[in-house]
């Protein structure tokens, strides 16, 4: 899993550098975007301990999976 994340992070870094950012600024922006994972962790830990909130989290997550699956089907079958 860490190798997978390394590939994404290095790809993001390469895109930032190729758009003209300095290496130092690209590293800083990449680091700041990585910190959002910790913000999501803490929000998830707080909301996950509440029964009512966890029901909403599961409902939204299931809805997202259904949306992705159904849009993939629509694109494959050419339904307009």
Describe this structure in words.
It is built from 3 helices and no strands. The protein has 80 residues and is an all-alpha fold. Helix 1 crosses helix 2. The radius of gyration is 18 Å and the shape is flat.
Labels describing this entry:
single chain; about 80 residues; mainly alpha; 3 helices; about 90% helix
Count of β-strands: 0
Beta-strand residue percentage: under 5%
| Weakly predicted, low-confidence segments | none
Q: What's the assembly state of these chains? A: single chain
Mean pLDDT: 87
Radius of gyration: 18 Å
Structural shape: flat
Q: What gap, in angstroms, lies between the N and C termini?
A: 37 Å
User: How do the SSEs run, as a string of H and E?
Assistant: HHH
- Percent of residues in helical segments? over 70%
Number of helices: 3
> SS-based structural class?
mainly alpha
| Biggest sheet features | none
């Amino acid at each position: 899993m860490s190798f997978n994340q390394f590939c994404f992070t290095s790809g993001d870094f390469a895109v930032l550098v190729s758009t003209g950012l300095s290496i130092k600024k690209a590293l800083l922006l990449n680091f700041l975007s990585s910190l959002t994972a910790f913000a999501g962790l803490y929000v998830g830990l707080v909301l996950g301990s509440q029964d009512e909130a966890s029901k909403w989290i599961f409902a939204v997550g299931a809805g997202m999976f259904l949306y992705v699956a159904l849009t993939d089907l629509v694109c494959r079958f050419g339904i307009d």
